[in-house]
Design brief:
Shape: flat
Radius of gyration: 13 Å
Helix content: over 70%
CATH architecture: Alpha Horseshoe
CATH superfamily: Tetratricopeptide repeat domain
Largest sheet: none
Number of domains: 1
CATH topology: Serine Threonine Protein Phosphatase 5, Tetratricopeptide repeat
Number of helices: 5
Oligomer: single chain
Number of strands: 0
CATH class: Mainly Alpha
Order of helices and strands: HHHHH
Amino acid sequence: MGLLSKSEAFVRKCIDLCPNSRKGWNMLGVIAFVRDNYRLAQHAFIKSVKIANNSTAWVNLGALYTSLGCVVTFLATLVQIWQYFLFI
């Protein structure tokens, strides 16, 4: 089992123990993104944002959309990021 697989298993266990962990969901998104599991990455980043409106997950979601060439979706995400920073 590689390091990413071990990391994913660990993060999934953390999420099982604390399902409202924005950091856990964001980390799962990062791992999924690196493993080219874009659907899971998107789900995890959105889950993180819904738990707690946080800039890290918004930026990661934007990076995902940019890497996939989803310009319109990225721009909508960028608006959300700007709104987040305006209301901190």
